Automatic annotation (TrEMBL), chain A:
This is HBA protein. Keywords: Heme, Iron, Metal-binding, Oxygen transport, Transport. GO terms for molecular function: haptoglobin binding; heme binding; iron ion binding; organic acid binding; oxygen binding; oxygen carrier activity; peroxidase activity. Residues 2-142 form the Globin domain. The gene is Hbaa. Involved in oxygen transport from the lung to the various peripheral tissues. Belongs to the globin family.
From TrEMBL, chain B:
Keywords: Heme, Iron, Metal-binding, Oxygen transport, Transport. GO terms for cellular component: blood microparticle; haptoglobin-hemoglobin complex; hemoglobin complex. Gene3D superfamilies: Globins. The lineage of its organism: Eukaryota, Metazoa, Chordata, Craniata, Vertebrata. This is Hemoglobin subunit beta. GO terms for molecular function: haptoglobin binding; heme binding; metal ion binding; organic acid binding; oxygen binding; oxygen carrier activity; peroxidase activity. Residues 3-147 form the Globin domain. One of its GO terms (biological process) is hydrogen peroxide catabolic process.
Length: 142, 147
């Protein structure tokens, strides 16, 4: 799967529109992930996962920051997320299926807060981008 | 048989009561064909699918989207018996249409994104949970008669 020039500009436009609210969206996507796909909670037994949890919000900020970083370095996502990729391979070892679930929840929160931005074409580009991020983060698993 | 809590049933039926089946079905199917272009393989008889604009405006896509979502409504009317609701459709999708069941999962997730864009904050995480469960049960029922 390759991100075309149009995909890249669509993704950058989404993140430009989202702007500073990316951190909040990250937190919301994570909260939705835990509620809509409860199996994902198995990776966070050390977290308070109750509604409004500061830990979840804090972790959502980190996730959003990584997505923003990837979007800002969209010509070399593997390079930009290399350290995160190592972390996931060596330490976190989150099953690859979960990146799809989080990507889906991120699309849901973008749809909720910025429905006008998520045209079918942009939806396609953003989905491809999120898949690419997931692929990069699991690339060193084996 | 799937167990639904009263709350889950409420989330499903209250969202559904506000859905414009024709519009929502058309949008969901169009997005499926745009976001996952390989799904177009089943629709070679639909005419012009050459661009997102063409797909969104394609009357056959709109009509088929409405048909698909109308059928989804049958599951919602028969939440306690989704399996048998889809027995014949499952056989059809396997024996005549030859559709990989993975496509049902893809369409289910697209439907959820469409609902989210229309219902915004009303589509709460708990509401999404109920709908994820529903689309998963529907996909499973449609795949059940495959051989």
């Amino acid at each position: 799967m390759v991100l075309s020039a149009t995909d890249k500009s669509n993704v950058k436009a989404v993140f430009a529109k989202i702007g500073g609210s990316a951190e909040a969206l990250g937190g919301e996507a994570l909260e939705r992930l835990f509620v809509a796909h409860p199996t994902t909670k198995t990776y966070f037994s050390h977290f308070d996962l109750s509604p409004g949890s500061a830990q979840v919000k804090g972790h959502g900020k980190k996730v959003a920051a990584a997505l923003v970083e990837a979007a800002n370095n969209i010509d070399d996502i593997a390079g930009a997320l290399s350290k995160l990729s190592d972390l996931h391979a060596q330490k976190l070892r989150v099953d690859p299926v979960n990146f799809k679930l989080l990507g889906h929840c991120f699309l849901v929160v973008v749809a909720i807060h910025h429905p006008g931005v998520l045209t079918p074409e942009v939806h396609a580009s953003l989905d491809k981008f999120l898949c690419t991020v997931g692929t990069v983060l699991t690339a060193k698993y084996r | 048989m799937v167990h639904w809590t009263a709350e889950e049933k409420q989330f499903i039926t209250s969202v559904w009561s506000k859905v414009n089946v024709e519009e929502c079905g058309a949008e969901a199917l169009a997005r499926l064909l745009i976001v996952y272009p390989w799904t177009q393989r089943f629709f070679s008889s639909f005419g012009n699918l050459s661009s997102p604009t063409a797909i969104v405006g394609n009357p056959k896509v709109r009509a088929h989207g409405k048909k698909v979502l109308t059928s989804f409504g049958e599951a919602i009317k028969n939440l306690d018996n989704i399996k048998s609701t889809y027995t014949k459709l499952s056989e059809l999708h396997c024996e005549k249409l030859h559709v990989d069941p993975e496509n049902f999962r893809l369409l289910g997730d697209i439907l959820i994104i469409v609902l989210a864009s229309h219902f915004a904050r009303d589509f709460t995480p708990a509401c999404q949970f109920a709908w994820q469960k529903l689309v998963s049960v529907v996909a499973h029922a449609l795949a059940r008669k495959y051989h």
